[in-house]
Amino acid sequence: MRNSNKQRVLVVSGADTPGAELTRWMETNDRFETVLAQTDEKAIELFQLQGFDAVIIDSSLSDSGFNKLRAVLPIFNSEVLVIGYYGETAEALQKKMELSYESNKLERMKRLIILDADHAAGQEGWLPFSDN
Known about the structure:
This protein is α/β, with parallel strands linked by helices and 132 residues long. The chain has 4 helices and 4 strands.
């Protein structure tokens, strides 16, 4: 059963077991629920079936797999965070994830403010009439 308080993160590593720091981050973080995929194809399959809030792509994955995931995953979910992992420490990765989520949240708020401003431009709260 999914813990609704945790963000779901798909970790994609080209190796059978990810590096020590990435493994340590996966085991010790308390904010994210993580699932590991060893190939780009398996990652796409898991992403479609289970849905994830973010994807971390390990640099051990091939360049073509890395580029494929960066292109394909946002098609399935435009809000997904796709983050590259290049051997950072577990603490640096945690900070990178938190900053990415904060940036994504601010972008969403900015879009909502713009939509709200467009709505307020109508007369007395009504949207302008269009024959189209």
